[in-house]
Amino acid sequence: MLQITANNKNVFEVEQSDSGFRLGTNEVVSDIKMLANGMYSMLIDGTSYTAIVEKVDRKNKEMVIRVNGQAHTLAIKEPIDQLLANMGLDLKAMQKAEPVKAPMPGMILKVLVEVGQQVNKGDGLLVLEAMKMENIIKAAGPGKVKGIKAVEKTAVEKGAVLIEME
């Protein structure tokens, strides 16, 4: 049994069976049938809908579906997630942002962020010159810059903490 939520509201409880999925929304029970690659036919409260699964992100427990042309981002809560939530624990909130460390010795050419700045995965944080090549050090995940230890035009050793994240 999976619980799927949208906008922090319980939307569906899904049970998988041999014939497809069984979907419960409050008092309404509906059927979902797979039509083709990532495409589903949904019957909810007597109304037929076509849904396309556009993206499933198992790590972040989210999925994007398009129902009758409108995209919806849904959170997926497995039984363990529901149990942890009932216990007052939130794994995403408990994940600690790791500091950004120098992957190799080099020279800090430019710091691209400021303290307090929100960054997303893949955003450039600083430019490190190593072996006559400029390397953009990027954020490993979303977070907020807590502190900057890197100083432009100074040398750093491998493993030195450059930016602290929260």
Give the arrangement of secondary structure elements.
Blueprint: E1 2-6, E2 9-17, E3 20-25, E4 28-36, E5 39-44, E6 47-57, E7 62-67, E8 70-77, H1 79-86, H2 91-94, E9 100-101, E10 106-111, E11 118-119, E12 124-130, E13 133-138, E14 143-148, E15 155-156, E16 161-165
Antiparallel strand pairs: 1-2, 1-8, 2-3, 3-4, 4-5, 5-6, 6-7, 7-8, 9-16, 10-12, 10-15, 11-14, 12-13, 14-16
Succession of helices and strands = EEEEEEEEHHEEEEEEEE
**Major sheet size, sense and barrel closure:** 8 strands, antiparallel, barrel
**How much helicity do the residues have?**
under 10%
- How many domains is the backbone divided into? 2
By DSSP, the count of extended strands is 16
* Parts with pLDDT < 50 across at least 5 consecutive residues: 18-29
The whole-number mean of residue pLDDT values reads 77
C-alpha termini separation: 34 Å
Q: What general outline do the C-alpha atoms trace?
A: elongated
Structural class determined from secondary elements: mainly beta
